[in-house]
Write a structure and sequence with these properties.
395 residues; alpha+beta; Elongation Factor Tu (Ef-tu), domain 3; Threonyl-tRNA Synthetase, Chain A, domain 2; Diaminopimelate Epimerase, Chain A, domain 1; 3 domains; 6-stranded antiparallel barrel; 5-stranded mixed sheet; 37% helix
Length: 395
């Protein structure tokens, strides 16, 4: 049995212990101590990291009444050791986990939404709420309410009940999944739930909670959020982005959205003008290609979408007998389309395209290819053109 020092003192950063056993399996070394300050993985929270006699601890797992520590190298049984946790990691876990309780409690109080899943990732924390949707205005109100509870610096009370019936008068948000040795975390008036994770003694230590997004997820709502220093770093990043946008658009944060909307409208107008211009150019090129005397029509465009090249080729082939070999340098794509019986476009591409680092293929009357570099595209088009000449296509 491993004595769980973190259950009674979550702020204990260093302690003495004795190695009870060493287990080596599948190339991993696990150490069991008589007592530990390392909280194991559980309840959506990752395990503590740290050191045993300076040897790195990278994982901690609970196995019945014992706690196993994954270490970088063996430590002999019976050794008296000094154990230290990675306090920055522990504090981060405490802030995120307590923030999750506050967030879940406020959501339950306001919307009767239940927390159906919790995961503490390396970057963000997620909770899944059994509500199909939470309006944006409500998300903002919930975030504000949670931060108000943080500022009130409420106590975070920990209680361990030996039997479930001892909690008959406790306002639990949901029924515990175990019936003995139940660890209850209670923030009076906000949330009360069975939980095995680590938490600060007061809500003020959470610092701040930022909700990053709320998305529909499998009939529920998945909320992404960060607390403490994670939230500070995110806010600093946001401020840096806003400052850069303000400088680029010569705007203050208060009118940045209106300025961006105006820029989008201007861009949309320019895109419509460009589209109309390209359509006129497409008509002009089509007329030019239809009038040409050569059967083989080769064109390399600096900036044209592959779809427009295909439409151009199809229009030309409706008007006359031809072989259209078109390439776009902006998209690094080539098409070959024709209406002659003696050619097989896909076969020509297959025999040539891999020699110039390209990918593609097709059928008898049309083929497409794509390239990483513009020079490869040009080389490919030259090779295809030579192949078409060898097929005695009249030029």
């Amino acid at each position: 049995m491993t004595r769980r020092l973190f259950d009674t003192d979550v702020y204990l950063k260093e302690a003495q212990a004795r190695v009870e056993a060493v287990e080596e399996k599948d190339g991993k070394v696990w150490v069991i101590l008589d007592q530990t300050i390392f909280a194991p993985e559980g309840g959506g929270q990752d395990a503590d990291h740290g050191w045993i006699n300076g040897i790195a601890v990278s994982d901690v797992r609970e196995n019945g009444e014992t706690i196993r520590h994954l270490v970088a190298e063996p430590i002999p049984a019976g050794t008296e050791v000094t154990i230290k946790i990675d306090w920055e990691r522990r504090l981060d876990h405490m802030q995120q986990h307590c923030g999750e309780h506050l967030l879940s409690g406020v959501i339950y109080e306001r919307l009767k939404g239940n927390n159906k899943g919790f995961h503490m990732g390396a970057e963000v924390v997620t909770v899944d709420i059994d509500l199909p949707e939470i309006p944006e205005v409500m998300v903002l109100e919930i975030e504000e309410e949670v931060n108000r509870k943080i500022q009130e610096n409420l106590p975070v009370e920990i209680r361990i009940a030996e039997q479930l019936d001892e909690l008959a008068d406790v306002p639990l948000r949901k029924k515990p999944t175990v019936e003995t040795d139940i660890r209850v975390v209670n923030v009076p008036g906000v949330d009360c739930v069975a939980c095995c994770g680590t938490h600060p003694s007061r809500t003020g230590e959470v610092g701040i909670l930022r909700i990053l997004r709320a998305d529909k997820y499998k009939g529920m709502t998945r909320i992404q959020f960060v607390c403490g220093m994670r939230a500070v770093k995110y806010s600093t990043f946001e401020h840096r982005v806003l400052r850069e946008l303000n400088q680029q658009y010569s705007a203050e944060t208060a009118n940045l959205v209106a300025r961006l909307k105006k820029e989008r409208e201007k861009l949309a107008s320019l895109e419509q003008e460009l589209k109309a211009y390209r359509l006129r150019e497409l008509d002009r090129m089509m007329e030019e290609l239809v009038r040409e005397e050569q059967t083989l029509l080769v064109r390399t465009f600096e900036n044209m979408e592959a779809g427009m090249m295909m439409n151009l080729a199809k229009t030309v082939l409706k008007e006359r007998e031809a072989v259209c070999l078109f390439g776009s340098l902006s998209e690094k794509k080539v098409i070959l389309m024709h209406n002659l019986e003696e050619l097989h476009a896909g076969k020509i591409f297959k025999e040539t395209i891999q020699t110039v680092n390209g990918r593609g293929g097709g059928g008898a009357s049309s083929a497409q290819g794509s390239f990483q570099e513009g020079e490869d595209l040009k080389q490919f088009m030259e090779q295809v053109e030579r192949t078409l000449f060898s097929e005695k296509i009249d030029k």
